[in-house]
Design a protein that fits this description.
There is one protein chain. By secondary structure, this protein is an all-alpha fold. Among the domains are: 53 residues, no CATH class; 48 residues; 80 residues, no CATH class. The protein contains ten helices and no strands. The longest helix has 61 residues. The chain is elongated and about 145 Å long. It is found in: Nucleus, Nucleolus. Keywords: Coiled coil, Nucleus, Ribosome biogenesis.
């Protein structure tokens, strides 16, 4: 029974369809063996067609002078460290074409031998072998090609500079956001501290207003609080009870000062109560005005 043709890539790769009957016929003739059948390619035989090579050489060969051809056939220069090449050591030391270093050194020695052989012949023919000092060789590329290369390099450099500037801007933005966040956090902490101090002051837990003056003024004020504390306390007591606490202060029991005008008494009260907070000064001022009436 014939097998259906293969589909897809298998059908495209096969040149012809193989049927079961053909396989059986090939097996009966002994062309196939049991197991996996793989077509083995035999080793390729090198063909040295000397006549064909000479024919190809004759096709492109030109009868020119040696100066135009500059071709020589020489053996490589012998190695300095090793012995000179002889038929005996040539057989002993075979050349390995897979060795990169040995292959490159053979090219170098071959070129060296050619130069040592050709230079004397060129000197005999009076052919110059050295360029003059002011010699400028023609460039392999034209000015237009060099201009294109220059523009390409400039565009590449501009792209690199643009990328570097973009990186710097991203770093600066990142640093700016970090600094801005720190400043906002610091302001929030200061605001929270001030609000807590105001609440304490409103509730009467503290009578200091240092949070309104700043750090330096607060430090100066703290140094002066100890010296002025007692004096302010005496001034408050003199204002409340009419005691004579010092020069310039007036007692309510003194007759000569009792009939002073209300404006003078208010100025006197303000002088005695200077530095007193507003919420403390208000009731006392109303009491003093009531006494005057």
């Amino acid at each position: 029974m014939d097998t259906p043709p293969l589909s897809g890539s298998d059908s495209d790769s096969d040149d012809s369809l193989v049927t079961d009957r053909e396989l059986q016929d090939a097996f009966s003739r002994g062309l196939l063996k049991p197991g996996l059948n793989v077509v083995l390619e035999g080793p390729k035989k090198a063909v040295n067609d000397v006549s064909g090579l000479k024919q190809c050489l004759a096709e492109f060969k030109r009868d020119l002078e040696w100066v135009e051809r500059l071709d020589v056939t020489l053996d490589p220069v012998p190695e300095i460290s090793g012995p000179q090449s002889t038929p005996e050591n040539k057989d002993q030391k075979a050349f390995d074409p897979e060795d990169d270093f040995q292959r490159e050194m053979s090219f170098y020695r071959q070129a060296q031998a050619a130069v040592l052989s050709i230079l004397p012949r060129l000197h005999q023919l009076k052919v110059p072998t050295k360029r003059p000092t002011d010699y400028f060789a023609e460039m392999a590329k034209s000015d237009q090609q060099m201009q294109k290369i220059r523009q390409k390099l400039q565009a590449k450099q501009a792209a690199m500079e643009k990328s570097e500037k973009a990186k710097q801007l991203r770093a600066l933005r990142k640093y700016g956001k970090k600094v801005q966040t720190e400043v906002l956090q610091k302001r929030q902490r200061e605001k929270t501290h001030m609000m807590n101090a105001i609440k304490k002051y409103q509730k009467g837990f503290s009578d200091k207003l240092d949070f309104l003056e700043g750090d330096q003024k607060a430090a100066v004020r703290k140094t002066k609080e100890g010296a002025k504390g007692q004096q302010m306390k005496k001034g408050y007591e003199g204002f409340l009870f009419g005691f004579v606490m010092g020069a310039g202060q007036v007692s309510h029991g003194h007759g000569s000062e009792f009939h002073r005008s209300g404006l003078e008494l208010r100025e006197h009260s303000a002088a005695c109560g200077r530095g007193l907070p507003a919420h403390v000064m208000g009731p006392f001022s109303r009491i003093s005005l009531g006494r005057l009436k």
